[in-house]
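*** Protein under study ***
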Amino acid sequence: MKFEEKLQNALVAMTLDGVVERFDPADKYHEMICSVLSVWFEIFPNWNDAVKFAHEKFIENPKESKRLISSLMGLSK
């Protein structure tokens, strides 16, 4: 639940910052998250648990992460 709350906050922040539009498809949100994660992995290479968790959630399971994004943002599928 805490992860989903923080993810939703990040997704909303992405819309407020103009990175994505509010009703962009989950694919667009997912693409932008993965883009940020790749940079984040380089900046914080010693955060192994966080890197592993993010990799499992967004890179290994893109279909599930897009479903979660759609759910959190109230997007149509």
Remarks:
- The two ends are 22 Å apart (CA to CA).
- Helices lie at 2-16, 26-43, 48-59, 62-73.
- Residues 2-73 form one domain.
- The mean pLDDT is 92.
